[in-house]
Structures are given as structure tokens and as C-alpha cells.
Fold:
Amino acid sequence: MPTFTAPDGTRLAYRVEGDGEPVLCIPGGPADSAYLGDLGGLSAHRRLITLDLRGTGRSAVPEDTSSYRCDRLVDDLEALRAHLGLARPDVLGHSAGANLATQYAARHPHTVRKLALITPGMRAVGLDVSGETRRELARLRSGEPWYPAAFAALEAITKGAGSDWDAIDPFFYGRWDAAARRHQAAGRPCNREAVALFGAEGAFDPPATRAALAACGAPVLLLAGEFDLNSPPETVAEFAALFPASTLVVQPEAGHYPWVDDADRFAATVAAFLE
Structure:
């Protein structure tokens, strides 16, 4: 994997796949970016440049672990853009990585051509998801064989009385089949410190970010999964309303990883937006 040096000297790695105009891709987690794969075949349309965030994948662990904070990772993404010599690349962020993509667009609005936020995390703009919203979405899956145990675990977690996160994994996929199980196992974050410090105090300033996004002229795609408990469509719609030029797409029968649930539909939707 190619590498570059972040402003603080940390060596960071990135993957390049596909041809065409570049898209800077930011994984969630923070986790090894390998779980993104080629984003359901999006690499057939665009050149995907996918960053391993510091301390994950093949990127080095920083000397200063406070640099795991989301707002500080913005400098890593800007360093990658400069390293590649890209004037105005498209930027794509998934899940927690959408927080980083959002803060990057807020801080560097003139270096983003288009912004794609996939089943986005929304802490950067201060949007929360209620327990009842998650329950309503979960009940849409009541016909699934795994539903009783998964819903019981969700109820316990929502009430603060449970911590069996593995039991609710099926809710994050449109189909809880062998492929989904393999993807979930491969995509688990390995660096717990990076996860814990990503949203540390000071990582987010929602009022400032919202104000900056109101002046962001880049077209923005917000793609939600119909069944996604992490980023419910109705909350993603609130997020979309913060941008002057946004498009909201809800992918049917998809969860938090829509390129796994329906690769062709996902790749076609994102490619059409970017092109």
C-alpha cells in the first residue's frame, strides 16, 4: 500500500482501486478500511483512494494518541489531498467517517467538488437518534427468524441494562446471511483506543459546523439504508436539510452497509451522483 506523512510525522497508508476521476474515501469505525472493499463495484466508475485512519489498517499508531480525535483527523485528509496533488476531489465518508468528511467540508469548502455521506454518523452536526426511532425501525424486521433475540438485546441496550452488541448485528444488514456475517466479522474495529478517542471532548462543535455547512456550495449526497438503526432515514433527512444543495436517497431493504445489501443499486446511485 502507498503511504504518506501526516503533518505530525505519522506515516499513513491508503489504498487505490479502479480508474477514472478520484474519490477520497473515509471509513468508519475507526476501523481498517478494508471493510469498504470496492464499495459494491464503484471502482468500475471511479478511482477510489481509501485512507486507513491513523492507528488502523496499515497506518502507524501516532505518538500522540489525542490525535485520534475526529477534528484533528481533518489535517490527515488534507495532507492526503495535497500528497496526491488533487485540486478539488470528491469526498466520500461512511458511518463515523462521515463526521470526518463533514468537518473536512466545513473547514475546506473550496477543495471539495462533491460530498457523499453514506449511512452517516451525525455527531459532527449534533443530531441524535432516539431509542423509539430505533425500535420503530427494528420492528420492520419482526418477520426475521433472528428478530426475537436481537430485539430483546436492543431493548436492553436502549434501557442501559444490556451490552450484548453482537446480538443486534443482524439489524445492520438488509439480509443476515453468510456474506453479511463475514463482512461484520471482518469489519470490527481493532484499535479500541482510536475508537474511544475519536469523539473525545472537543472533537465536535456542532453550531460552528452547521454554520459552515450552510455556506457550503458543493453538491451533497446523503444515502440512508431503509432499515439502518445507526443512521435512520428520518434523521439523515434532517442532516440533508443542513446543506444548501443536498440529495437524500433511501436505499430500499438496506442497512448500515448498503453496498453489501445491494451492490449494483448502491454503485449506480453513487456513480450517478458523482458523475
In short: The mean pLDDT is 96. The first strand starts at residue 3 and ends at 5. DSSP finds ten helices and eight strands in the chain.
